[in-house]
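Problem: given the chain below (475 residues), write out its structure.
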Amino acid sequence: MKTLGRRDFMKSSLAAGVTLALPFSRVRGANERIVVGVIGLGGRGSGAHVPSFENQEGVTVAALSDPDKERTGAAAKMIESRYKHKAEQYVDMRRLIDRKDIDVIGNATQNYWHGLSTIWACQAGKHVYVEKPLSHYIWEGRQMVNAARKYDRLVQCGTQHRSEANVTAAIKWVREGNLGKIKYITAFANKARSSCGKRETPLEIPETVDYDLWCGPAKKLPIYRDKLQYDCSFDWNTGDGESCNQGVHEVDVARWCLGEEMLPRRVMSIGGRFIFNDACDVPNTQIIYYDFPTAPLLYEVHNLRKAKGSNDMPDFRGERVGVIVDCEGGSVSLYRGIAWDKEGKEVKKFGGGGDHFVNFIQAVRSGKREDLNAEVLEGHRSTAVCHAGNISYRLGKTASKAEMREQIRDVPIFGEMFDRLLTHLAANEIDINTATLGPWMEIDGPNERFKDNDQANRLVHGFYREPYILPDLSA
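Solution.
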């Protein structure tokens, strides 16, 4: 299959007389101007990347790109109004990426575009801040790491808890053994989501959107949900569900605390998409068991309310989204920065914040990969864990409560999470026997694949649409 990559685009651009960027390797001085191009201008692009770069001394957002010209235009107007300068607008990100004056790419595209766009940027000699989850597939994430290494670029993943002093201090304290050995970690996201709708006729694509570019590597299909943009996160073709979309934050913090650098030994998931009956297909209720050598990591997603007719959301020990470490001598909430002893008495607090974008620019100026708080390899490792859990779910089947109990009977701590799932579904008048039971899946950690499972490994590698084929940079 032919890939319309940067090299092909460069040839056509040179023929048209466009001047292109060549890779640079020199370190940016403390007072030297850094020029940024932002690709993807939804909430994160316009609302976080643009101001987070512009508010740093000596950093300017000079160019913007999105397949939706309306979004690009709105961001350009905001920059002109707030920061008193113009930013060039592009529909095709490759034209922005190949500008020789651009030093840095702020990548706020949707999940399924992260891989190819980051690789293009590395090939063009740009450093990249790319939003989480890092990749849409496990193999894709590894190619992003390979690109950063091959082209000697700095790539920061947007798992911003890595730059928060309170989280860093709490993890250090736990790993020093102040509460004894870690028994298990529970990570969770109780985030309200609504139905994405289910149309009888395909959604009409706005004239402002280049739909082929918008789809990019994903399958170019008619849309039957109500909205084109953000809800694409809840469709396997273009998204990865809550356990990866939000879950990569919690999984990253938990994996960091455990000190694990590879995929878990095995994984299993139970869940379903309940009540909504819409055009999206990822679970809105899910529990996952990640079997790490140090200690198990358990993750749970609740997008539904606490109970039918309620406006409240579920919580875990008083928190809606977080990571709680249970140790021999007590527990720690890594997000809240509080530690308790076995009797529940508070014994330690952790404070302090941080700015992930500032850390990235500081690393660009130093030219040192080790200065990045969430270097691409760390982002890949955590995102791959999330994908592994989802692959178990995607290969699952509807099962009875008895079958679920039997499959997890040797894992008591996961049985407790399963009991919470039962309570939650019953409160929403959902029959557990309609849920999907994923298989236990053994993982070949060094090769980032599943053992003896061709179907799962197809999902590891992923699917790409011509001409947006991800290059293999393994060699």
